[in-house]
Each structure stands twice: as structure tokens, then as C-alpha cells.
Design goal:
Elements: H1 4-11, H2 15-23, H3 30-43, H4 49-56, E1 61-65, H5 74-90, E2 94-98, H6 104-113, E3 118-121, H7 131-136, E4 140-144, E5 155-158, H8 160-173, E6 178-182, H9 186-190, H10 194-210, E7 213-217, H11 223-236, E8 242-245, H12 251-260, E9 270-275, H13 277-282, E10 288-291, H14 294-309, E11 317-320, E12 324-325
Parallel strand pairs: 1-2, 1-3, 3-4, 4-5, 5-11, 6-7, 6-8, 8-9, 9-10
Antiparallel strand pairs: 10-12
Helix pairs in contact: 1-2, 1-3, 5-14, 8-10, 11-12
Length: 335
Amino acid sequence: MVTLAEVARHAGVAASTVSYVLSGKRSISTGTCERVRRSIRELGYHPHAGARALASSRSDIIALMVPLRTDMYIPVMMEIAVAVTTTARTHGYDVLLLTGEEGPAAVRRVTGSGLADAMILMDVELDDERLPLLRASDSSAVLIGLPADTAGLSCVDLDFGAAGARCVEHLARLGHRELAVIGEAPTMYERHAGFAERTLDGVRAEARELGVGLLHRPCEAGHAAVAATLARIFDERPATTGFVVQNESAVEPLLAVLRGRGRAVPEDVSVVAVCPDQVALGASVRLTSVSVPAKEMGRRAVERVVAKVGGDPSDDVTLLAPELTVRASTGPAPA
């Protein structure tokens, strides 16, 4: 590893001069600065993160808080995390990934230690217990998600309420009058995960507006759980012909169970999902879906938090408009 002293010898200056060039704390002549920077490039020198932080009061690190719970669809969370990481690098930041379910303790650890210049929080609940700490601190933070009260916060998310409404509208236009929602795992609703609650709110509001029947049934992952949920739905509402799937892990089991029950998709029943494109395109029947724009959410969150670190104090909410793509899983309601 190249040291600061080696850079100084290569540039023919004192080590303190190299330090001043890096920190900007003292005026150095243009010629000397150029010579030092040329030596840094040629030798491949990288300042030690701790020393850089002491010199500039900045760590050039963004803390990404993404609790990896068992009830979550991890591929989506990781796609967002990768987008955050790659976008952060284009702005000169590294990302510290915090995956534990520490809640407020993790926020205190970051804000109290100066470990990171900013925070991005995922898996946001409607009444998230981390939010009072964020509002009380001076730290720059952005949420990927939407709590019930957004005052004093910056948020980026898909408009999940509008996404749910688009799914119902699409099925209703095809003539489906009895719909069912294959929902997330029960724990998602018990802890009031923001995206799950908002999707369901949008579905219910649109169903009321259009006068269509609706059942919502939470569903665990796996073939057996989906089979039990589907049997319950058909027992309660035998005329159900349209399904809105809010649970990515239930997509393929649902299609398999429908086949096993002799229900053809889309001739007998139609299925629409809120899910990533790779889930919709990889299903045994290509799904009509509202895409979850994971990369765009991650990119926008980083851009917003970098602006905050740069001195923009404004708080705002950015909701990405849902886009529904019609594929092979939806068709006119059976006569």
C-alpha cells in the first residue's frame, strides 16, 4: 500500500504539503498542487478513510439501513441496495450496509459516531420508530418508503396506492366483477409495512369506486400456503375470476395451483401482480404487472441524500408513477 510519505518523496515535497493538498486547509501553489496530484495518480495512492474523515469532517460514506426480515422478498431489497451502491460510487461515496433489525439503535449508532455522512433507510413502516430520531438529528437522511406522516422527511418510493388501483382498474375493464388479493405474509400487515398497507388501500379504494367485489387474504410463501389461501377464496367467493398478487413469492405457486384446479389463465381467471419485471417475465405465464422500479428508487434516493449533504435542506416526497404492462395472464372475464 502506498503511503503519504512515499507520495511526498515522489513529488519532492514535505509530507505536510501532501496533507494540505488533500485537505485543502492551507493554500498551496498551483504548480505544487499539480505535482502532488500527479504523484498521487501515478502511485495509486488512496488516503486512509479515518485520516480523510478527520481532515475534512466527512467520511464519504452513506449508511444504508435494510433490515433483512424473513417476511420480505429479498431479491427486490438487494436490487435496490445494488442501485444505491453503484449510484453512490458515481458521487464519490462508499456504502455501509446495515442489515440487522436494530431499529432506533442503528440510527443512534450512525448519528452518534459520525460513521457516515448520510443515511438511507429502507423497509419503512407507517409508524416507523426510527423516524423521531431522524427528525431530532441534524443528519442527512432519505427514506425509500413512505410513512404515514412525512413531515420533516425526504422520501422516495413507488406510488404503491396508485399501483394497487391500476391493477383493479385493469381487471374491472376486462369485465371481472369478483376480485381477490393474494397478499403479503400476515406479519407484513401486523407491523404495518408501508408499501403493503398502501397497495392494499389503493386496491380497496378502487374496488369501491368501481363497484367490484373484493377479498384480501394474506399469504405465506410456498405451494402449500398458496393452495390453502386459494381454496379459502374459492370457498368464500366461488365466482372470483380476477386475482391481484401483492406477494412475489406467491406468483408461481398460484399459477401452479390454478392449473391443478383446472383453471386456465387467462381464459378462466386473470392474474395481475405488483412485482419486479424479472418475476413477471419469468413466470410460467407471462404476467400482466405493475413493475417495482428498484433501480430508479435507489438512484433517486442517493441523488437526494447527496444533495442534502451538499447543503440542500429541503424535504420532499417523490412518488414514482406506476406503469402497468399487459401480458398473457389477463383477459376478458369468462361469460
